[in-house]
Amino acid sequence: MARVRLEHVTKRYDDQGDVVTAVDDMNLDIDHGEFICFVGPSGCGKSTTMETIAGLTIPTEGEIYIGDREVTNLPPKDRGIAMVFQNIALFPHMDVYDNISFGLRLRDYPQDEIDRRVERAADIVQLEGMLNRMPEEMSGGQRQRVAIARAIVREPDVFLMDEPLANLDAKLKVHMRTELQRLHKELDTTIIYVTHDQEEAMTLSDRIAVLDSGQLQQIDPPLTCYNEPDNLFVAGFIGSPSMNFVEGTVTETTLETPNFSLEFNPSSIDGVGVGDDVTLGIRPEDIYPGELKSEVPDPSGMITATTDILEPMGDEIFAYLLLGDGETSMSQELATNDQLLMSIDPDSDLEEDDEIGVVIDRRNVHLFDSATGEAIVHDLIPYEAEGTASSSEVESDD
Amino acid sequence: MATPTDTQEQSSDGPLQRWTQSAIQNPDKVYRALFYAAMVFFLVTTLFPFYWLIVLAVTPEGNLLSGSFLPTVNLFGVSGTFPLPVPKGFNPGAFVTVFEQVPFHLYMLNSFALAVTTTVIVLFVASLAGYVFGRLRFPGRALLMLGILAISYFPPAAFVIPLFQAFAGNAPITIPFTSIPLFTPPRLLNTPGSMVLPFSALFMPLSIFILTTFYGQIPDGLEDAARVEGTTRLGALFRVIMPLSAPGVATAAVLTFIAVYNEYFFSSIMATSPEAAKWSPIVGGILSYQTQYTTQYNLMAAASIVGVLPVVILVIVAQERIVSGLTSGALKE
């Protein structure tokens, strides 16, 4: 049974005198059969973390365990892993059969066993009848399936997938995504999957590990990451389009932001005190047009805004709202105080530069400490709702 | 007013002027002409000696020194010298005599064996070096590479005397500037060892350079994939990186093979006399047709032709690979 554990794994590179820390004190405990996604922006250390598990990179500090064995310094071939690479990395001078059977032939399996396994792997990824083709004669999706077959044929303890779908077109990506899910169900193997696409991470994984600047930000099931992000980074990274952030200050009865105020009772929430600087996080779907106020369970007061840009997506419209006399914000900062993004019904007759009133669902508002970025609370239910508030506190364990 | 005069002038021009005019309009013409000129030049300079060898080889020995190879031809009363040498007589038997007088096939075998051994050694060691230089980052890499290339700047003659002394195996090697003996080398003169070792060292830098370029271009992902699949780094080199660099490997192999096959300087010294049993190479064999009193040019020419045939065949077979190896070096994943 392949449980994968990383203990205090750190990887530092010496880049011409500058020490670059790619992975910073990473601790992970991945159960047998789990599908884990590493997500994060480019350069966050997710690929390096995977390479340390694969053995392609030896960590500077820390230990790695696969199953009950410590594998920190073992070469990749002795770790019981298989890997699917972003650039697919089929051997161009070998046909599909040779590619798939490469690892088996190296391990001196008997010929009939190799044939049997290759056939079964080809069957699982639906490559029957293509075993004699050369990689260059195949489409991107077929090549990717060969790469997956090459990985499953050895029946490894752990699958490592480094952005395996990144080079495929959008339609194929969705198709391969379902195939991967089916495969996971069929094989019952631990899968560690690296992606920068949070949508892939949400749909595929049992748990998501969000990484930034070499550090683990949160590891939780997808919906927990979405609904109860541990900090500003996770909140902004998970969800597309991403969460609105507005900076504000806590007063006796409200949260004051530059353009609007939210009524709530600070004393009902642990960790918030009058005068604190907090960052408000609101997902686009938790902002409603004023006329729907009666349907929102716990609406805020009406906020007036001007629509700026509308992005019709078919099933919904993303509307950029300018608050107060706000100008279009071009800043790349996390908090956009003068701008809100909301998702509205596709049938809406809203037009650009309309003046509208919107309300915010206070049950789905996140508060973060502006200084540390840590999450404080994930709803602003006032007064009586003590019970709900406690359950929504940040959960660090699974 | 000017136009009619211009046309008139143009039509009265000679062919060269007309060609020049059109070449100005169409510069491609000039490039093509230059290309043909260069091609003809190279073909003549490379093929004429070979033709001259054939003429010499088939001319019977007795006719070699009498008369001219440039015959006088009488064409419709105008007599002149034919501009190309032609054989004086026809004696294809020289190609057989070559093997009867001297065991020339043994000399060829010597050269062939030396060339193959050296090529194998060079490819193996240069592959390891090429892998390190092409794929790993480590401090001092550029300096080390420069050092290796510097070896190829040395004239081989600089190594002859110390190597001869060492391979003679008479005296122990001492630490420089002292008389402290280190070890007595085995006597390698007149054995392939005394030739293969210096050849390998001398031809190594070029191969390292070629293979470094090629191995450096193989995507890291392929090596990683091979290692995850179950090879060591070395296994990945020989199972994946080397086959994918086939044009580069072929180029390095052919260049090394030809250089050693044609080598004479070292082997003439390391083989103390030009005998096949002492691993004298082809050139040693060719020179054996020259005795104190006679020089059988026709046999020397015939032997030269026979000796060059394996290389010609090799180049024809490997031509495509060499050309792509020398020019492109690009590799698709």
Automatic annotation (TrEMBL), chain A:
Record bears the keyword Nucleotide-binding: yes
Subcellular location field: Cell membrane
This enzyme's EC code(s): 7.5.2.13
One Gene Ontology cellular component: ATP-binding cassette (ABC) transporter complex, substrate-binding subunit-containing
Classification via Pfam families: ABC_tran, OB_MalK
Catalytic activity: D-xylose(out) + ATP + H2O = D-xylose(in) + ADP + phosphate + H(+); L-arabinose(out) + ATP + H2O = L-arabinose(in) + ADP + phosphate + H(+)
Superkingdom to which the source organism belongs: Archaea
CDD domains in alphabetical order: ABC_MalK_N
One record GO biological process: carbohydrate transport
Chief localization: membrane
Topology relative to the membrane: Peripheral membrane protein
One of the record's GO molecular function terms: ATP binding
Similarity comment text for this entry: Belongs to the ABC transporter superfamily. Carbohydrate uptake transporter-1 (CUT1) (TC 3.A.1.1) family.
Biological role stated in the UniProt entry: Part of the ABC transporter complex XacGHIJK involved in the uptake of xylose and arabinose. Responsible for energy coupling to the transport system.
Subunit structure: The complex is composed of two ATP-binding proteins (XacJ and XacK), two transmembrane proteins (XacH and XacI) and a solute-binding protein (XacG).
Name this polypeptide is given: ABC-type D-xylose/L-arabinose transporter
Organism in which the protein naturally occurs: Haloarcula argentinensis
Automatic annotation (TrEMBL), chain B:
Membrane topology: Multi-pass membrane protein
Bilayer-crossing regions: 33-57, 104-131, 143-164, 195-215, 236-261, 297-318
Main localization (coarse): membrane
PROSITE patterns: ABC_TM1
Keyword Cell membrane part of the UniProt annotation: yes
Compartment annotation: Cell membrane
Residue ranges of every copy of the ABC transmembrane type-1 domain listed in the record: 108-318
Family: Belongs to the binding-protein-dependent transport system permease family.
Protein name from the UniProt record: Carbohydrate ABC transporter permease
